[in-house]
Amino acid sequence: MKSLWFKEWLCEGYTINQLSRISKKSERKIRSIIDYWLNVTPQVSYANWADVKYLVFDGSFIWKRKTSAVILLNAETNKLIHGVYDFKESSFQALINLFHELKSAGLSPRSFTVDGLPAVIRALTDVWPDMINSALFISYSATGFKVVQKLSKDFRS
Predict the structure, then answer these.
(1) Band of the pLDDT at 23, cuts 50, 70, 90?
(2) What are the phi and psi torsion angles at 97 (to 5°)?
(3) Counting Cβ atoms within 10 Å, is residue 138 exposed (0-12), middle (13-18) or buried (19+)?
(4) Among 88, 155, 98, which residue's Cα sits nearest to residue 123?
(5) Read out DSSP for 24-67?
(6) Superfamily name with CATH number, domain 49-156
(7) All structural domains of the chain with their residue ranges
(8) For residues 49 and 103, what is the distance between their CA atoms, to the nearest angstrom?
């Protein structure tokens, strides 16, 4: 099943109605495409966790705020290195479990960029207490991400 309309819905924020008009497909068909891709578990594996030092963590509600997804980006390459669907970003215990799993896999970041959600900050500092700049709060947009990159580079010096 074609993922283009799912990507437009998820990444660009188009509504089902808008996608139906753009694609000339029925709303029912668009909804079935979205449902299909929501049930596909992404295969993201990253072998070099120890090489990643500067990360961006963010989460977003999807599907009428009924569920959410969280992602980790390598701030140096701007590449997705980990993503979790149907994750409770505000759940301290869920975050602790996720970060401990990543730490066990070899992740040892120097800094994280987060949007300021208290549970995320607390979990990060619990798992990596010596992390530099663990409390850098930047809520970024597509254009604001360049600020994140610059700040990450500044902290490496």
Answers:
(1) very high
(2) -60, -45
(3) middle
(4) 98
(5) T--HHHHHHHHHHHHTSPP----S-GGG--EEEEEEEEETTTTE
(6) Ribonuclease H-like superfamily/Ribonuclease H (3.30.420.10)
(7) 4-38, 49-156
(8) 9
Give the closest residue to 89 by CA, choosing from 114, 52, 107, 126. 114
Token digits for 62?
A: 């999807």
pTM over 0.70: no
Q: What is the largest CA-CA distance in the chain?
A: 53
As a whole number of Å, the CA-based R_g of the chain is 17
Instruction: Produce one character per residue of 92-108: b if its CB has 16 or more CB atoms within 10 Å, e if not.
Output: eebbbebbeebeeeebe
Tell me the per-residue pLDDT of 34-51, one tens digit each, with 9 for 90 and over. 888 888 876 655 668 888
> Is residue 149 a contact partner of residue 126, using CB atoms and an 8 Å limit?
no
Residue with tokens 């963010």: 58
